[in-house]
Design goal:
alpha/beta, Spore Coat Polysaccharide Biosynthesis Protein SpsA, Chain A, 2 domains, eight-stranded mixed sheet, 8 strands, 18% strand
Length: 313
């Protein structure tokens, strides 16, 4: 009989964890058969760890994992995948914005032989600004990184044990775990759902984290930034050559004096800014190469709490 692991990254979610578990218990746990729930505390500053362990006391199939500090959601999911013991694992957000019954549909798709099952947003019950920026990110991904990225984007996914083993061997840092799953190329399926608005708690998905995700996705899965620098450099060379020809022509043919301190400063300042921008892009690649060469783990597990009657890995 197959077993499914539900991996839940937790970051300041003490107010939703018990509601999340009660929702899963009422809707899906009795229908899954053999299961485990792996909560991963990603350095929360509230009492999420205590709430997780209260749930563990209620259910012997719950595993509580605490990271040594905040490593980010993708690292927390990787930590959960490294701890889980299921034949497949599905990620589940703790913010109550996805219907728990979605897991049943994904599990059935896995049983049909799909090793990756993506949960795609059909609609979003969220504000216009959040929808706009989310849509912009996924348009960038489809255009420059992965043309197969669904328009609605993907919040959670189910992966087979074989996929989990490959992800652990990849051991990438500063990357997008969702894009890694899609990049692997295993047989996949899509399940569509309607994302609800968050009614309890406050989102910790800040602008800086969203911006980092965009940069990580660009740097890890496409050479577009490097090609951009090459194209800009070539265009500036062409403009410089054309400008020099025009200036020499004006001086020799028309006798026009070479003046223009203000225009010269504008060109110098713009060129300097562009050079710094390009150096910054190169610095991103150099820093990532240094980060990988250090061979530091993407996460550090501090504590794993299991019930004695629970199934050990």
């Amino acid at each position: 009989m197959s077993k499914i692991s539900i991996v839940v990254p937790v970051y300041w979610n003490s107010d939703t964890l018990e509601m999340l578990y009660d929702d899963m218990k009422a809707k899906i746990l009795d229908k899954l058969g053999d299961y485990e729930i792996v909560f991963v505390d990603d350095g929360s500053g509230d009492n999420s760890w205590e709430v997780m362990n209260k749930i563990r006391e209620r259910d012997p199939n719950v595993v509580c994992t605490r990271l040594s500090r905040n490593f980010g959601e993708h690292a927390a999911i990787l930590a959960g995948l490294s701890v889980c013991s299921g034949d497949c694992a599905v990620t589940k957000q703790a913010d109550l914005q996805e219907d728990s019954t979605l897991i049943l549909d994904m599990y059935e798709s896995w049983k049909r032989g799909n090793k990756v099952v993506l949960a795609i947003r059909r609609s979003r019950d969220e504000g216009a600004v959040k929808k706009f920026f989310a849509g912009m990110y996924y348009r960038i991904v489809r255009k420059l990184i992965n043309k197969d990225m669904p328009k609605g984007g993907c919040d959670c996914y189910l992966v087979d044990r074989q996929v989990i083993d490959v992800l652990e061997r990849m051991d990438e840092k500063n990357s997008s775990l969702t894009l890694q799953v899609m990049w692997l190329g295993f047989r996949s399926d899509k399940i569509y759902f309607d994302r609800k608005n968050r009614e309890v708690g406050k989102s910790r998905w800040t602008f800086s984290k969203k911006f980092k995700l965009v940069v990580d996705s660009m740097m890890s899965f496409t050479y577009v930034p490097l090609r951009f620098m090459e194209v800009i450099g070539a265009l500036f060379d062409i403009c410089a050559i054309v400008g020099m020809i025009l200036v020499i022509h004006e001086k020799l043919v028309e006798g026009t004096p070479i003046l223009g301190y203000a225009s010269l400063m504008c060109v110098l300042l713009f060129s300097s800014g562009l050079i710094l921008f390009v150096v910054g892009i190169i610095g991103e690649y150099v820093w990532r190469a240094l980060e990988e060469s250090r061979n530091r783990p993407p996460f550090v597990i501090d504590t794993i709490e299991k019930n004695e009657s629970g199934i050990e890995k």
